[in-house]
Design brief:
Layout (H helix, E strand, L loop, with lengths): L3 H7 L39 H39 L2 H12 L7 H34 L2 H31 L7 H34 L7 H12 L3 H17 L6 H23 L8 H35 L1 H6 L6 H5 L2 H14 L3 H29 L7 H31 L71
Length: about 500
């Protein structure tokens, strides 16, 4: 009887070598399925504890939120605060959904996005209110001209203070969540969530004050100050603050993919993005100084084209991530870590969604279906991180932990391969022959005895065998129609390499 440990060692594919770089052992002890990262236990002072630091951040943001809540309520009054809150929340779900859609290729963790939103809504807004008020009072006292002080404060002071406060959230995630900040899209999404939170609090203040003015003057309807403020801030320009801060996020995103040897570039790009954000913000705030039609001129000539350009750049970066998958993952497929069909399936958002749906419907109940779909989604995310890591390594933008990070990502792919690989391979077949499954029940390649269990490799049907894979044509699952799908290609000469390591 062969030694199981020998079989296990033989089942491990080799890691594809990058630039002739030799790596150490491929796999260590397999982590638990629920763990998404290797987190070594750190012993030291209490402030080194992850729980302590997370708790400190949450407490600080809650305190800032309570203070900002009190300040806004004091300025707007209880009724104005409620009206402002109800109107200001309207664009928030749309903006968050748009940025989250942009981040679908390699979704960032929600904790980073919620931190960014809370930072913008609480910490950055509190800094802006205090600093802007102090600076405006100081200018009014020094110049004895309150009108010019308000103009100068809105045009010069506010853009510098507000964009710096919002950029702090992007900087913190860039420094302390570096693994999760790997490119331009990450910079855009983090900056967008931060600015959405900031605009949410600012809109409460502006709309609440407008409602208070209407209460004093007795105005109502479309002629009211509240309606005008709502139209300008919520309908015409809900993207204004996100657009400003996204320029800062682009700077950090380009710095993330720059080679480590280009230190000047890695520092200059975020600074340049911040300066552009301040300049565009100042132009927007000072548009009223250009005459009665200055606001509309700046809106049509500068803001809309800038918004279109930034949107195009963000979508182009998203598509580039998909192209990176198609370019980098075949090396891992050739080494046996992925099936041949997976790189093309992973580089298509439609195929990725189809694979999640297939994994969900192949399971006998909803609970297992949700777990299978989640496993496929995690597999897709880890594969995207792996392709991005390898691309950054080619450009010298990774540190000395590249090998360890690569092995870690391969580990997580390996753990989920039994569920994800057949779903992605099947999605690739359906993409190659669209409509071939129309009107026929989908075959179930695992989980019911007909499934992704035993076989010699890719064949023309499903059935028993010796190793994971689509088996020989001794049997077919219910609803399988010969000729409905194009004949799949074999894995390779060593199908045993696709076996998961024992837990």
């Amino acid at each position: 009887m062969p030694d199981p440990s020998v079989q296990h060692q033989q089942a491990r594919p080799a890691v594809p070598v990058l630039h002739e770089q030799r790596l150490d052992e491929v796999l260590g002890a397999a982590p638990e399925r629920g763990r998404g990262r290797y987190r070594p236990h750190r012993v030291g002072m209490v402030w080194r504890s992850k729980v302590f630091r997370a708790g400190a951040v949450i407490v600080a943001l809650v305190l800032c939120g309570l203070v900002i809540l009190a300040l806004v309520r004091e300025q707007t009054g209880p009724e104005g605060f409620l009206v402002g809150l109800g109107l200001a929340v309207l664009p928030v779900p749309l903006l968050m959904a748009a940025f989250r859609w942009l981040d679908r290729v390699e979704p960032g963790p929600w904790r980073n996005l919620l931190f960014s939103f809370a930072w913008g809504a609480c910490a950055a807004a509190l800094v802006a209110i205090i600093a802007n008020s102090f600076a405006t009072r100081w200018i009014a006292t020094a110049t004895a001209d309150p009108a010019s002080a308000d103009t100068l404060g809105a045009t010069v002071i506010a853009p510098v203070v507000e964009e710096s406060a919002k950029a702090a959230a992007v900087l913190l995630i860039f420094l302390f969540r570096r693994r999760e900040f790997s490119g331009v899209v990450d910079g855009v999404v983090v900056a967008g969530f931060t600015a959405t939170g900031f605009a949410f609090t600012e809109n409460i203040l502006y709309l609440g004050n407008a409602f208070g003015e209407d209460q004093l003057s007795g105005s109502s309807g479309f002629a009211s100050v509240t309606a005008g403020t709502f139209f300008v801030r919520i309908v015409m320009s809900p993207f204004a603050h996100p657009l400003f801060t996204v320029l800062t996020g682009l700077g950090f995103g380009f710095a993330a993919v720059s080679a480590r040897r280009h230190r000047v570039r890695r520092i200059a790009l975020p600074v340049l993005g911040l300066l552009l954000a301040m300049g565009l913000h100042a132009l927007w705030n000072g548009s009223s100084a250009f005459g009665p039609y200055g606001f509309y001129a700046v809106y049509g000539i500068v803001m809309v084209p800038a918004f279109g350009l930034v949107t195009w750049l963000a979508i182009w970066s998203r598509q580039r991530e998909l192209r990176t998958l198609a370019a980098e993952l075949p090396a891992y497929a050739a080494a046996g870590w992925l099936t041949p069909a997976e790189p093309s399936a992973l580089s298509s958002m439609r195929a990725r969604g189809m694979a999640r749906d297939l994994a969900r419907h192949w399971q006998p109940d909803r609970t297992r279906g949700r777990a299978a779909a989640r496993a496929v989604a995690e597999y897709e995310s880890f594969a995207t991180s792996l392709a991005g890591l390898r691309r950054r390594a080619r450009h010298g933008a990774v540190g000395p932990d590249f090998g360890a990070r690569e092995r870690e990502l391969l580990h997580h792919l390996w753990q989920r391969q039994e569920i994800a690989a057949p779903a992605l391979a099947h999605a690739a077949l359906l993409m190659a022959r669209p409509g071939a499954h129309h009107g026929r029940p989908l075959p179930t390649p695992y989980g019911t005895g007909n499934g992704y269990a035993n076989g010699h490799g890719y064949g023309t049907g499903y059935g028993p065998g010796h190793t994971p894979g689509y088996g020989h044509p001794q049997g077919h699952p219910p609803g399988y129609a010969p000729g409905a799908y194009p004949p799949p290609q074999p894995y390779g000469s060593a199908p045993h390499s696709h076996r998961r390591p024992p837990s």
